[in-house]
């Protein structure tokens, strides 16, 4: 017996897809205003999104409004999958050298804020498609659920559980306000405000408004899919420092930031009282200092440049932005091994970052310390703690489940990638970068300064699937693929 309320899932999907179709009018309007290509590529996409939303609306018009967690999981996975397919339409229609699989890869990369690309010669491409990639990153960074809860009444049906379907690391105890819609609205305002400030900052660094806006959307979403082949390499030092600040802001918990601002705008100690933020920030500073020192001693870099490129790349990788600024694999062996270690870690939970999340590693370390003590004092009552509170058994199980699922999916993806023709190093690092939504790989051919354009269609589809799984933190997608999810 099927236990999913499919008509209600269709009813929830309908307004979301309708607004995706409306958002597609933005690059369409830009192409008309600037008299550049785009009209005949974005019209079919807008029509498909709006048309599908109306079909789903009819299917769900008599649905019973009782949501279960299974309905919410299916809704979230279906939403991300359908938007990925719809968003790929203008990419395929506009770019003749990009296949269907490549278009799906590009769409998934943008929406998941991975930032990997299959497009060469970005500066020669129609501006409308570059703007579309940035818009997709911006939407994917904050997530459709947060946007939906903030502006669509129907999304509030799922309560707090709807957040957990899009990010399994969402901390329900960290709610800023008991009103779910108000909390989502605050997050959305903070996100939009960051984008405006980042755009102004890039513009003041001497870059034109189109580049500043696109770069800002890529930065605050920690997406890294710049409209330039050289990524950040040709931008000014001021732009690099701007990116560092806003990548960091995008990779720390939004609710912690907002709670700190509500307490006292001038006292940062409220922000750094959070154990995750404090540990993550210290990790960035220590790692950046070590790499900068190696660049000064081993590569004869000037001190300012060493600090800037080291800090930029560490924040870029940890925040899973994936911006390119020099090839860090070509610096020295010490730096390379450090970047390999941090490649899959990611930023904080409750942020736009992907990866394993620093919070999960802190919980694992807390478990490790408590087990060491119990090894010597087996009768001592000691439990792992985080932020001054005991880590609940439910949290421990969720962390372990996620880490096991990550490793299993990574192994499966790497094996499939080698069967499809990739060498072992590229297969493993490409799978890691896609699952963690980082962007660049660290293999022989897929390095920080290369892209995914030369890969086969089968590899594009595999890595597109990996990116969506990573963005939804694996568990929801795996659940929807099991028999128990659909049956009693």
Q: Main sheet: which strands, in order across?
A: 1-2
The N- and C-terminal alpha carbons lie at a distance of 7 Å
Q: What number is the mean pLDDT?
A: 87
- Shape from CA axes? globular
Number of distinct helices: 22
Q: Spans with pLDDT under 50 lasting ≥5 residues?
A: none
Biggest beta-sheet profile: 2 strands, antiparallel
Helix content: 55-70%
> What is the strand content?
under 5%
Structure summary, number of beta strands: 2
Rg calc: 22 Å
Structural class label: mainly alpha
Order of helix and strand elements from N to C terminus: HHHHHHHHHHHHHHHHHEEHHHHH
Structure description:
The protein has 488 residues and is mostly helical. 65% of the residues lie in helices and 1% in strands. The chain is built from 22 helices and 2 strands. A two-stranded antiparallel ribbon has the order 1-2. A hairpin with a 2-residue loop joins strand 1 (385-386) and strand 2.
